[in-house]
Specification:
The protein is mostly helical. It contains eleven helices and seven strands.
């Protein structure tokens, strides 16, 4: 009886181990002389097939299959015409590495990110974009990957998958991810960077309704350029603080990011309705 094996054709279909191995291969491609992109693609395909239970009887057919699958990975990599520049084309808000050792990362689509941790993480990401400082990247990973919530996995679960973010514990967060390999740290950065991009223009499905926050950022004066990487957080933060809807600044920082975004979008839509009537 033949066994059918599903081979991923989009980011969302990767397992955590496949994602980590891909990051490892990406690092090898950067540092190891003589390796080509097709070498990396073939090795990753071999790893995926083996991990999903493919045990070929005829080696020649197996090699042909690997070669054929490698040619389908155009969605995964971008390559310049001369082939001199190669990059992973990472485009998903799904967190492909939800857990690393005893630390938990953000839920997919950033659904458990608080406004405070998001604000700090964006600041660190911007700093890393400018300096490429490894310690800044480590700090970013530490902010996003924290120990699990005290009540997680119990009958008294309070919805907190990770311990509450505390900016006073930044050094401890960084120390907790000290042993995280550099190639995995880059993967954490890639996910968060794409999430920030998606927050600007993408469509979220919240309680069955499609929502796009683009008007909020247009109103706050942010853009998609380098100077707009802060996502207009300063203007947004001022707006939220002045409204007092979520309490004081500390309480606002503990509020879920998407909850705040929904409030700001609602305010924008109401203002637009009033403007159109006048």
């Amino acid at each position: 009886m033949k066994k059918e094996i599903e081979f991923p054709d989009c980011w969302e279909e990767l397992t955590a181990s496949e994602w980590v191995y891909l990051l490892r291969l990406r690092r090898k491609l950067e540092t190891q002389k003589g390796l080509t992109l097709i070498d990396i693609k073939r090795e990753w395909c071999r790893f995926v097939l083996h991990g999903r239970g493919c045990r070929p009887k005829i080696k020649e057919d197996y090699y042909l299959l690997i070669d054929s699958l490698a040619s389908t990975l155009t969605w995964m990599w971008t390559e310049s015409e001369e082939g001199k520049q190669v990059a992973l084309s990472f485009r998903t808000t799904q967190n492909l590495l939800p857990v690393w050792k005893n630390l938990r990362g953000p839920l997919s689509v950033g659904s458990d990110l608080t406004f405070g941790e998001f604000r700090v993480a964006v600041s660190l990401m911007n700093e890393y974009n400018q300096t490429h400082d490894p310690e800044t990247l480590q700090m970013l990973c530490g902010v996003l990957y924290r120990r699990q919530g005290a009540k997680f996995g119990t009958a008294y679960f309070d919805g907190n998958y990770r311990e509450e973010f505390n900016p006073a514990r930044m050094d401890l967060y960084a120390a907790a991810v000290q042993m995280m390999p550099e190639y995995i740290r880059w993967g954490v950065y890639a996910w968060f960077a794409y999430f920030c991009e998606y927050l600007l223009t993408g469509v979220f499905i919240i309680e069955g309704t499609e929502v796009c926050f683009a008007p909020v950022f247009e109103r706050s004066g942010s853009d998609t350029g380098t100077t707009g990487q802060n996502l207009g957080l300063h203007a947004i933060g001022l707006s939220v603080a002045e409204s007092g809807v979520f309490g004081n600044a500390e309480q606002t920082d503990r509020t879920l990011l998407l909850k705040i975004m929904l409030k700001l979008l609602n305010d924008y839509q109401r203002a637009e309705m009033i403007r159109k009537k006048t």
